[in-house]
Automatic annotation (TrEMBL):
Superkingdom of origin: Bacteria
SMART domains membership: AAA, GAF
This protein's name: Transcriptional regulator NifA
Pfam (any one): AAA_lid_14
Sorted UniProt keywords: Activator, ATP-binding, Coiled coil, DNA-binding, Nucleotide-binding, Transcription, Transcription regulation
Domain Sigma-54 factor interaction: 190-418
Coiled coil location: 149-183
Any GO molecular function: ATP binding
GO biological process, one term: regulation of DNA-templated transcription
């Protein structure tokens, strides 16, 4: 009991098991007479082992204590993981007497006891000692106590291994964060160093000083708004207004008044005049997101504004001159829309002066680690949490196909931070957070194929940006719309894209059939 009390008093006082193991061997000798105790541990990545901790052995004896797998009593315990008791070392031919010469031991019968040290269900070492046979205390009592000590040694070694693994993971995260901060592209708030991303940033910087219209192309969730803001910040207009507008979110009847403003009395309720977004963006930049959703009537008026540099308020008679840099964005194939008559050809050519293609997250997998670390740091700060991802968890994120691109990754990280039950998450821990919808299909086929939904909803993979409607828009039943919405997690924009419809068409059909 005294021995256990003394040893346990040391546990927790030091992160290293070294002082505990040394005191354990010391007390084994002083209190129990179990002499020349040693802890033998495996060499990293090798089949050999050596004495790492000892009491009652000289430095030369410790140095000689090296064993191959299965060699002698110690090597046999390492290989088999079973307790071995040699009642008389002189009568045991396999006893090596390598560390301590027989001439330096007492002349009477000497026993040798060797117990496996197990950590993580694997034999990692041996706790061994000499015992004089003439002791009055029962051998079974000594073996029982040694079993307790060997179990404790295994737990201490396992804790040390876990701590080292966590430390390595944190060091990797710190290094990744340092690289992200040092990245020159991060000055616009754009994180990543993949070749496709750097090429897009380079094109952005080359045209930043001009006033030509820029068209940002790419899948949904690739960061078009961030690129539009970066273009504004890199331009001479950086100190002026930056106005962002989502064309898919404006009702068709309000488009003109929102973009160009209105005069007093222009319509019922117009008690005062109001400047539109183009006026407010004068001398600055205006970002029209999802420009493919703009009605044809408004496309004509937008083209006139771009060509002449003037706007006319709704209900007004005078032209107002504006100096605005237009940045437009779409996930649609505008050329296909032009061929179908859904988008004006002359406006397309006016917008497509400088097209910049933004890469999807699947095309910049090397940036996923830095992006995930950035999002988890932000989510921890906002939600006052302390959740971390190990190197294995970050590697698992890199393997996922990310059909929703950066937006999906950011949402997943926030969900992980809010729902995590432990501070450090391994790859297996984050598996339950990955979207279940089409997970197996996505990873087997490298992208969204539509095979995980009903045939009536299947569309082309995301690399084909052109959206070809499945028949006529009014041919979709309410069940088809509802199922598409379920497949997209309630996101009407994605459900509309899945069916080859605009958001406005989806909303109209949904309300009409839902009545």
């Amino acid at each position: 009991m005294l021995l256990l009390q003394q040893i346990m008093a040391l546990v927790g006082k030091n992160l290293s098991p070294l002082p505990v193991l040394r005191e354990m061997l010391h007390l084994m000798s002083e209190l129990l007479g179990l002499n020349r105790g040693r802890v033998v541990l495996r060499d990293d990545g090798a089949s050999t082992s050596r004495i790492r901790h000892a009491y009652g052995l000289t430095a030369q004896e410790v140095e000689r204590g090296k064993y191959a797998e299965g060699e002698g009593i110690t090597g046999r315990v390492l290989r088999n993981g079973q307790l071995t008791i040699v009642q008389d070392i002189d009568a045991e031919p396999t006893f090596l007497a390598r560390a301590v010469e027989r001439s330096k031991l007492p002349p009477g019968p000497v026993a040798f006891i060797a117990l496996p040290i197990v950590a993580g269900q694997r034999t990692v070492g041996v706790l061994a000692c000499h015992r004089i046979r003439t002791r009055t205390r029962a051998l079974a009592d000594d073996v029982t106590l040694l079993r307790i000590l060997a179990t404790l040694a295994g737990q201490l070694l396992q804790l040390e291994a876990n701590l080292q693994e966590k430390t390595r993971s944190l060091e990797q995260q710190n290094a990744a964060l340092a690289r992200a901060l040092e990245s020159s592209s991060a000055r616009y708030g754009i994180i990543g160093t993949s070749p496709r991303l750097l090429r897009a940033i380079s094109e952005l910087e080359r045209v930043s000083d001009s006033s030509a219209s820029v068209l940002l192309l790419g899948e949904s969730g690739t960061g078009k708004e961030l690129f539009a803001r970066a273009l504004h910040l890199a331009s001479p207009r950086r100190d002026k207004a930056f106005i962002k507008i989502n064309c898919a979110a404006i009702p068709e009847t309000l488009f003109e008044s929102e973009l160009f403003g209105y005069e007093r009395g222009a319509f019922t309720g117009a008690a005062t005049a109001r400047a539109g977004w183009f006026e407010q963006a004068d001398a600055g930049s205006i970002f029209l997101d999802e420009i493919g959703e703009m009605p044809l009537t408004m496309q004509t008026k937008l083209l006139r504004t771009l060509q002449e540099g003037t706007i006319t308020r709704l209900g007004g008679k005078r032209e107002i001159r504006v100096d605005v840099r237009l940045v437009a964005a779409t996930h649609r194939d505008l050329q296909t829309d032009v061929a179908r008559g859904g988008f004006r050809q002359d406006l397309y050519y006016r917008l497509n002066v400088i097209p910049i293609q933004l890469p999807s997250l699947a095309e910049r997998r090397g940036d996923i680690r830095e992006l995930a670390l950035h999002f988890i740091s932000h989510a921890n700060q906002v939600n006052q949490r302390n959740v971390n991802l190990t190197a294995g968890a970050l590697a698992r994120l890199q393997q996922y196909s990310w059909p929703g691109n950066i937006r999906e990754l950011a949402n997943l990280i926030e969900r992980i931070v809010l729902l995590a039950e432990q501070p450090f998450l391994e790859a297996a821990d984050i598996e339950r957070f990955l979207p279940r919808e089409g997970r197996a299909v996505l990873e087997a086929n490298g992208g969204f194929t539509g095979r995980n939904i009903e045939p009536a909803l299947a569309v082309a993979p995301p690399q084909h940006v052109a959206l070809r409607p499945y028949g006529r828009v009014d041919s979709h039943s309410f069940d088809v719309l509802r199922h598409a919405l379920q497949q997209c997690g309630g996101n009407k924009s994605r459900a509309a894209q899945l069916l080859g419809m605009t958001v406005r068409q989806f909303e109209y059909r949904w309300k009409k059939l839902g009545q």
